[in-house]
Specification:
The chain is an alpha+beta fold. The protein is built from four helices and seven strands; from the N terminus they run βααβββαβαββ.
Length: 164
């Protein structure tokens, strides 16, 4: 697996993080007009630092290969009473796709959850990322209510006793 190093950022590096978001989104399988629209809605703002932690992902050569955002989140959606760590966003630059950096980022998120005392990691994935999270062996949470449940939710419990 590829090694990554999480580097928590502040608002001063927000432009760099958003450039990575846009580059990653440009690789999604969508019409160009939709890509332009989606890219704007997925970028982070200074206000996001009030509820989220944002990280740049650097490889061993100190190249920034991606970014991720996490936040403290209620556990009810994952079926537990404790707080969970929501993986709000994970973006790998297209030049680094297929090299294990996404897998390493999910692993790093799992460590953040365990070290932070969270019950586990909840992921609300884009439909195009379903295969990626399935390959990682994360538990797909079933849709119980079509009007409120996000359809592509995945769960990783911090301990075996929290398997859903």
């Amino acid at each position: 697996m590829s090694d990554i190093h999480l580097r928590e950022i502040s608002a001063s590096e927000l432009d760099k993080a958003n450039q990575l978001v846009v580059a990653a989104i440009q690789s999604w399988d969508m019409p160009p007009r939709l890509l332009r629209l989606v890219a704007g809605t997925h970028q982070y703002e200074a206000a996001d630092f009030q509820t989220m932690r944002l990280f740049l992902l650097d490889n061993d050569n100190e190249e920034t290969v991606g970014m991720l955002a996490v936040e403290d989140y209620p556990g009810e959606e994952a079926g537990c009473a404790e707080r969970v760590l929501l993986l709000h966003g994970l973006y790998i630059h297209p030049e680094y796709h297929g090299r294990g950096f996404g897998r390493a980022a999910v692993s790093a998120t799992q460590h953040l959850a365990r070290d932070g005392g969270f019950a586990g990691v909840l992921i609300k994935a884009h439909s195009s990322a379903k295969g990626f999270f399935n390959r990682l062996g994360l538990q797909h949470l079933p849709v119980r209510d079509d009007t409120t449940d996000y359809p592509y939710r995945y769960w990783w419990p911090a301990s075996k006793g929290q398997q859903r």
